[in-house]
Amino acid sequence: MELKYSTKNAWEVLKHDEVINFSESYKDFISNAKTEREAVKYLKNVAEQNGFVDLFKGDTHSGKYYAINDNKNIFLLKDGILGVENGLNFVFAHIDSPRIDIKQNPLYEGADVVMFKTHYYGGIKKYQWVTIPLALHGVIILKDGTKLEVSIGESETDPVFVISDLLPHLAKKQMEQNAREVIQGEALDPIVGSIPDKESDKEKFKTAILKLLNEKYGIVEEDFISSELTLVPAGKARDVGFDRGAIASYGHDDRICGFTGAMALIDATNPKRTIGVMLFDKEEIGSDGITGAQSDFLDYAIEKYLALKGIKNVSVREVLHKSYGLSADVNAAIDPLYRDVFDDQNSPIFGHGVVVTKFTGSGGKYSASDASAELVFKVRKLFNENGVPWQIGELGKVDVGGGGTVAKFMANRGIQVLDVGPALLSMHAPFELASKVDLYSSYLGYKAFLEKFE
Question: What is the per-residue pLDDT across 269-306, written as a single tens digit (0 to 9) for each?
C-alpha cells in the first residue's frame, strides 16, 4: 500500500506515439478554429464525417446527434445502452477565448493612418496585445443580406494588423504606471491602412480604405454595424522546446477542452449511459446571453431529444437531476518564474496529467462550484482504473486570486459536476502553452467518463 500521495510526469506513463498523433490533430483544430463560429463549424464537419445527424431534423435511427445554437454552441449527443430517462454523462466546456473585438462604427483616421476602434473581450493583460501580428476573423452582413465570412491575416500572403506602442525613448511616464494602466482600453486600436486616396479632399486615408473594402468585398461603412469582427493572434499553433513537448497557441482556454471532449464522445464505444458534450459561448464574460451556459439551450435540446425518442412522462428536469458532468476547463500550472503565487502542494504541475479541481471560485470560495467528496472519489477511482494520468489542483493561493467555470451553472440545473481539465502556462495570453501529454490525458479522462462512469 502506498501511503503518500504523489503524481508522475505523464510522459513516463503514456505511449509517446499516441500522444504525438493526437496532438497533431488538435493543432489542426486550434489553428483553424479561432472563434466560436469557426470551432462550431469545424466540429460539425467532424461530427458529420462520423455519422452524426442534426438533432432537430428528427432522425430517430441514427443514435448520434448534434445540435447547433446561433452558430456559437454545439451539443453532441450519443445514445447509450440505458435510455436518457436514466440521466446522461456530460462533458461541458466553452469555446470562446479572450480577444479584441471591433466596435460597430470602427473606422477613423489620425496622423495619416487609419485605425479600428476596439473593445477587448474577457480578461486580458492589455500590454500583451500590442506590437504583435493580429488576424481579423468574423462575419459581416452586407446591406443586401449577404453574409461575408472574414479571415484575414492567417495566410503568409495576407496582411496582418498591428497595435502600435510608445517607443521607450518617450515612455518615461508610461513606464512608471501600473501594469493595468500602461495600455488603456481605448489604445488597443490596430492600424488598418496608411495610403491616401488622391481624389478625396477630406479623410483621404479613411476613404481609401473604404474604397478598397468596397471594391474587394462590396462593403460600405454602414455594414460594420451588422458585423462581428474580432482580432486574434495571427499564425498557426507551434511546437515548443527542443523536444516539442508543448504547444503554443492562441485559444487553448478553453478550446483545448472543447476539442478533447468532442473527440472523446465521437470515439466513445458502447457507453452504458446516454452521453453528451455541450460547448458554450460567453464563459469569459459571465456565461450570459442565448449562447452562454445560463441560457436554456441545453434544456431545449434535451427536450427535443426526449420527443425524438418518444419518451413521455419524463421531464428535462428529471433527466438533469439524474445526470453527472465534468466541467472541462483549464487550470493554471505552477510557473517556475512566478512560484510565489502558487500553493505548491495543491497546484497542478505541467505535464502531470489532467487536473481534478474540487472547487473553484475566489477568496473564501466565493462564487464557487464545490463538488462532493463522493463524486470526487468516483472520478478518482475511474481514472485510476482506466490508466488516466491525473492530479489534484486549484488556481493559486487562497488570497491571491481564483477563477470560475461553467460548473456552477450546471450544478444549478441539478447536475452533479466536477471540474476536470489540463493545466496551462501563460493562461489568457495571446499565446498560451499546453503540454501535449496533458492534452492527451484530458482526452483519455473524458472518454473514460463518458463511456464508463455510473
Answer: 999 999 999 999 999 999 999 999 999 999 999 999 99
In which residue are the cell numbers 481609401 written? 208
Give the separation between CA 247 and CA 164, rounded to whole angstroms: 27
Residue of 279, 388, 264, 363 lying closest to 327 (CA atoms): 279
Amino acid (1-letter code) at residue 240: V
CB 353 within 8 A of CB 441: yes
Q: What is the pLDDT of residue 61?
A: 81
**Strand blocks (E) in 9-55:** 53-54
Q: At what angle do helices 252-267 and 436-452 cross, to 10 degrees?
A: 40
- CATH, domain range 10-97+250-452: 3.40.630.10
- Residues 194, 102: contact at Cβ < 8 Å? no
Left (φ > 0), alpha (ψ -120 to 50) or beta: where does 339 sit?
Answer: alpha
List Cβ neighbours of 302 (8 Å cut-off, separation of 6 or more).
Answer: 84, 88, 316, 319, 320
- For the domain made up of 99-233, the CATH class stated in words is mainly beta
**C-alpha grid cell for residue 365?**
470560495
Whole-number pLDDT of residue 234: 98
Give whole-number Cα distances, 351 to 24, 37, 47, 272, 339, in Å: 17, 30, 29, 31, 16
Nearest-angstrom CA–CA distance, 438 and 289: 31
pTM of the model: 0.96
CB atoms within 10 A of CB 60: 8
Domain boundaries in the chain?
10-97+250-452, 99-233
